[in-house]
Every structure is written in structure tokens, then in C-alpha cells.
Amino acid sequence: MMMSALLLLVLNTVTLPVGDNPEALHYPHFPDTMHSYVWRNWRLVPLSRIAEVVEANESDIRAMGAAMGLPEAPFISQEQLDRTYISIIRANWHLLNYPQLLRLLDWDEGRLAYTLQEDDFLFIKLGSLKPKCPPLVWKEADEAAKEREQEIAALVNSHFGTTAGVCEDPPLSFVKSLSSDFVMPPERSDESLFDPRFCYSYFALYGDPLMEGDPFPENYLKRLAASGVNGVWLQGVLYTLSPFPWQPELSAHWEERLDHLRQLTERAEEQGMGIYLYMNEPRVMPLSFFETHPELQGVTEGGHATLCTSLPEVREYLRDAVASVCRSVPKLAGIFTISASENLTNCWSHHRGHECPRCKDRNPGEVIAEVNATIQAGIDQAGTSTRLIAWDWGWADEWAPKAIAALPQKTALMSVSEWSMPLIRGDVDSRVGEYSISAIGPGPRAQGHWKLAQERGLTTLAKIQANNTWELSAIPYIPAAVNVARHVERLRDTGVRGLMLSWTLGGHPSPNLELVYELGKKQKDGSSLSAEAALEVVAERRFGLAAPEMVSAWHEISAAFSEFPYHIGVVYHAPLQVGPANLLWAQKTGYRSTMVGIPYDDLATWCAVYPPEVFADQLEQTAAGFESGAKGMESVLSKTGDREEQEKIRQEASFAYAAAIHFKSVVNQVRFILARNKATDAMLSVKEAALLKAQQESLLRDEIALAKALYILQTHDSRIGFEATNQYFYTPMELVEKVLNCEWLLSTLSASS
Q: What per-residue confidence (pLDDT) applies to 8?
């Protein structure tokens, strides 16, 4: 596999980000950090490399794992390493310093620096800090550690037997399954109100996808097409796709990437698919770059600065680079842009243009529109049919009118459909930020922006999440199908003519995607199906005679999901994605929850605008509805004798159960932390202290049960726990570790009585 390291190694310096650099956390359920390290990497990294990093013999590592009750370590393929590097980084973030982490990954500093910055802003997901980890060096376990090893082995054996972490469906097996031979069903009419309907690959590597495996295998595309999808997207970093004029060596292998992209577009076209590039341009450069090009520098943030787009030479680079890409890849269906994201790009992208001497007197909307107009000019210069979609993500409300008014006539406008929808959950007023299936759009922001664009004659698109959201992304799709159907039904009356079906999460073929297609399809008499009729059509196709009961379960789950305590802070920071894999702590860690990364025990951030008990109560209602819906699905397995239909029913029930487990675990975690914090009150009576202790013990036992239940689901279905840009949020070994964590806390509570 070609390494992205070259992209940054050519800079004068490579600096790995550190941030606040606090002391790393220690995991008291293990004897020491070495045992934590061996445990967490046992099924992620080859034993030889685990040993090499800490200057041990492979036999030493194998003996330590066996002493903790672990079965023989599996063979770890290069493909697994290539597709789980984020899981490896996250698992070792508090265990290894950068030099040792690099040895574990077998990377150089350049590749890690590029990954932390460009792989869907990974460093932000890790908290924008690197914990301080002293070098970890092998030493034999002392007597106390050996005694704890025996205790761990006994716990592992009692809860999981002798095969802890062994998977019936091994990690990443779904890649092979989704890429295996597939026969397309009878051809459907593609005449739809919504064109395009595009999503992200369920398993593509994000950072440098044109050099890291095939993001769109032919049979995977066929499966998406059968679900009604007609487009897919991937990230494109412009300086990796065309020569960067001020430092050409940054663009190493750009021709190879373009060749791969051209082949992808040609292959996708054969399946009726268009490929779209996501551009977030121009990318920032490290401050060292501006030592030789000070005239290009715009706003500075951290160790980077923008290439100021108010400069004609920067816009000329942007235009010519886009033109080069489009000429080389004439079948590229489209480009969509974000101009104000977590990535700093133009000087106003982080609302700080007033710090730039050239941009400070310019209207932000004008700067945003100018960036998009420059990209449109590049497409026009190439003379291809590639369409440009300007996504208004992150635009301040006051910028939008000016930006929309200045967009080129050929450029389409896309808005997050549900953004700014008002809602009340648990008597708490809130608004949707985005990423919601629990709230049924469209919302006022999108409708206002679409109206402005449509009055100018611009095409408009809606960005939705048809499969899953950050409300829960650890399952391929959320079976709240009724909410999805009603959302799309409402969009038909807005003038929207295209749909982005997902961000990086949500690219798995599913009944939800089929619903989107059915609701956009024109019937023979020119009419469109109602949401309820579309639900019946999809359910009958998938579940046969069990369709009525499956639709009923969808209704129950969708109604329950409408109780979810939505807030953008909640979906980004609560432990929704990791569920019972999130560890519990006897004392406050002091760490802040990170965006869909590591939740820690940061209860205040998890709950956002909700009082903790209200937050927990709402999630409890949601979990109950998902669990009840799953039981309803399982109850109709006998209604059909068709094995394929039965398997689809089991899959639907499994995902609903997994969702219920995640939500129930978050409830437990909230209540445990509340009880833990309250137990420190010196004014508590003996009776109150005893009640709090009993509550904590009950919650810990329930967490053990949930971790074991999710362990069974994940070891039987490798899709559970996975999302493309976060890879595995948790592994079976981490669920086993949670059991050890809870047992340790139970023992400390018992010892304190």
C-alpha cells in the first residue's frame, strides 16, 4: 500500500500535535500499563510487533496473555492492519508515546501527522491532546501482578470461557461479504424526483482513499444500486490530485491517484453510478511553508495558516487544479464543497476573517461564494459535465443570503435538511444541529436557504442521514424506518431535486435506502407512494408474509426514537457510539469527552442542555421501544419459511437489540456517575451511603450483562461497532475488558464497606 507519509515528509519539519499533554490515565483493573498494553493489542496487532515495541520477546508477550486467560493470538493480516489503524491508535492513546505508537503502527511521523490532520480530523476526535506516556519497557510481572493475572484469568473464564475475543464472524468479514458476487434484481426505472442519491462507502479508508485499497468494489456498487443509490462520494485533497505550484513535491503520486479515480468513475458508470469528490479547499499549510511564501498567508490557527483566497494567485491555483482533475477524469459526476467546516480553509471558514488584512473588510458570504465560483470556473475550464454542489454546512445564518446570491448559476446548493428544527424532549427545548433520524425534517434553515436558491433558479439538494447518524453509528442502519420515510415524503414538496444520503456513516445497503428510492420514484400514473405505502412495499419485498408485523415494529422503534434526547452536543459527545465498551471510573478522570471519539466520564458534556436524570429517562424510553420492537421482529420468524427472509428479519432484530444495548448502557453510565459523585458527600447519612453503594453495584452488574450481550452480537456480526472513519469503536476484547472494569469496581465497593 502506498504510504501517505510522503505528503508531509517533504515539508521542512514534521511536528506531531501534542496539545495540553496531560498525564495519561491508568487502568486499575489491570496490574500495570504493560498488562493493559498486551491485552488491548492482543487481537489488533501481531505479537511480534507488540513485543518489539516494548523490547520483549514474543514468548514473553504470549505468556502474559495466556496468564490473563486469553486464547492463542490470531493471525493479523496486513489488510486488517490497514483497516483498523484508527482503532489501534485509540486503544493505545493513553498507553504509548508517539515514538512507540509509530513502531506499533509501523509508520513514520509524516504518515501519522497526515492521518491526525486529514483523516476526518482525527486529532480532534482524540481530544486535540496527546496524553503524556512514559516509555513502556518490558519487565517480568512481580508477585502482585501474577496474583492479579490469575484473578483476571478466572473472571475471563467464568464470563467468556476459554475463547474470549474469538469471533464467529471475524473482524472486517463484511468487506468480503459486501464485495462478493451479487446478481442485480430485475432492472428498475431510475426515473426519480431525486437525482442524484449518493452516499459514502461503508468501508472506504478516508484519509487517502485513492491509494489505499478499492473503496467501491463492483459488487458492493451493485448492492447499493439495488437499494436505489446512484452515486458514491470520497474525499479529494486537491494538492494530492494535481501539482501544488509552490511545493510540487507535496503532490507525489498525483498522477497515480488520478488514474485510480478515472478507473473508478468508468467502473462505477457501468453500474449506473456517479462518483462525487468532496473538496474542502484550499487546505491549510504548516507555518514553516510560509517562511518561504509569506505573501500567501491568511489566518493562522495553531501551527497552520490558510492560503488566503482573496489573493488572485491562490484562486488561480484552485481553478487550474480543479480543471486539471476534471480534464483527467471526464466522467467525474460531481464535486461538493464545504467552505466552513472543522478544517480551516478560507480565512472566514472558522469565522475569523477579521484577522486577515485582505479579508477583514470583505463580506464572509462573498468570500465563501468566491471560493465556490473559482471551483466552478475550473470545471468550466475543463469543459466537462461535472456538476458543482455548494454545501452550506457551517455558514452563519447572516452569511447565507449573500453567499447564495453570488453563487454561479450552474452551481447547486445543498443544505442539511433537519438543521435548526425546533424540538422538545423531556420538556427541554432544543434545536437540531444535524445528524438526526429521531427528528423528522426538513427544518426552517434548509427551507429558507432552498427558497433563496430556487428564486435564483439554482438546483437544490438535501443532505440527510437515511441509514444512521451520530445518534448511533455503530450499527449499519437504525431500523427507525418510519421516520426516514416521513422525512423523504416531506422533502418531495420542497423543490429539492437531489439527496446526499450520508456523511461517512450510513453507506450500507438497507431497507432505509430502498424506502428513499421508492418515495422518489414516479408511479405509472405519475403519482408517488405515501410513506405508509412505501413501507409496505419494502417490507413485503424483504420479509414476505411477515411484512405487516415488521412494519408495526418499525413504527414502534420510530416512535421510541422520537423520545431520544437530541442535541448536537449529545450526539457528538455522549457515549452513544461505544455503549457498554466505555469504561467506568471510581473517581473523576478530569478528561473532557471528545467528538465521537473517547467519552471518558464527562457527564456534563454528554448531557448538553438536559438535566442528567431527564437525559437518562429519555434514553431509557428510547431503549425500551427498540428492545420491544426487536422482540416483535423475532416473534414473526416462523411466519416465513424462506431462509433469506428469515435472515433479514434476524438482521433487523439484531440491529434493534444492539441499539437498545447502547442506549441502556448510556443510561447506566449516567446514573453510575451521579451516584459516584454523590457518594463523596461527607454529609451523607449511613443509610444514604448504603443506598448509593447498592445502586452502583446494581448498575455495574447490569453493565456486565449489557457488555456480554453486545459481545455476543459483535462476535456474530462483524459490522456491529464499525464506522468507516472511526473504524471499530470497540472490539470484543474491549467488551471483555469492560467486564473486568466492572468487576474491579464491584470489588473496590465491597472492600470499602
A: 42
Q: Report the C-alpha gap between 234 and 208 in whole angstroms.
A: 9
The SS3 call for residue 232 is strand
What span, in angstroms and rounded, lies between the C-alpha atoms of 677 and 670? 11
Gap between the Cα atoms of 72 and 66, Å rounded: 8
Spatial separation of the C-alpha atoms in residues 714 and 580, rounded to whole Å: 12
Cβ atoms within 10 Å of 32's Cβ, excluding its own: 17
Q: Tell me which residue range forms the domain holding 569.
A: 555-751
Work out whether the CA dihedral 90, 94, 99, 104 comes out positive or negative.
Answer: negative
Spatial separation of the C-alpha atoms in residues 629 and 642, rounded to whole Å:
21
Same domain for 204 and 97: no
- Distance, in Å, from the CA atom of 577 to the CA atom of 101, rounded to the nearest integer, reads 24
Q: Which of 517, 550, 583 is the last residue of a domain?
A: 550
- Output the CA–CA distances (angstroms, integers) from residue 138 to 33, 166, 251, 322, in the order listed: 10, 26, 41, 51
Q: How many CA atoms lie within 13 A of 671 on its CB side?
A: 24
Rg of the Cα atoms in the chain: 26
Its pTM stands at 0.95
Q: What is the structure's pLDDT at 121?
A: 86
| Distance between CA atoms of residues 387 and 377, nearest Å | 11
Instruction: Give the angle 213-18-586 at the CA atoms, nearest 5°.
Output: 100
Greatest distance between any 2 Cα atoms in the chain: 80
| pLDDT lower than 50: segments of the chain | 1-12
State the distance between the two ends of the chain, measured CA to CA, in whole angstroms. Answer: 56
Per 3-state DSSP, the chain is made up of helix, strand and coil in percentages (nearest 5) of 50, 10, 40
**The pLDDT of residue 15:** 82
pLDDT at residue number 466: 97
Report the C-alpha gap between 268 and 376 in whole angstroms.
23
The whole-angstrom separation of Cα 28 and Cα 583 is 11
Bond before 732 cis per omega within 30 degrees: no
Query: What type of residue is 601?
Result: D
**Same domain? 484 vs 571:** no
Q: Is 715 left (phi over 0), alpha (psi -120 to 50) or beta?
A: alpha
User: Does residue 510 lie within any of the structural domains?
Assistant: yes
Helix ranges restricted to H, 68-172: 78-83, 85-91, 98-105, 109-118, 122-125, 143-160
Instruction: Classify residue 136 by its DSSP letter.
Output: P
* Interatomic CA distance for residues 505 and 722, integer angstroms: 9
Q: How far apart are CA 234 and CA 206, in angstroms?
A: 7
Contact call for residues 154 and 47 (beta carbons, < 8 A): no
Do 496 and 595 belong together in one domain? no
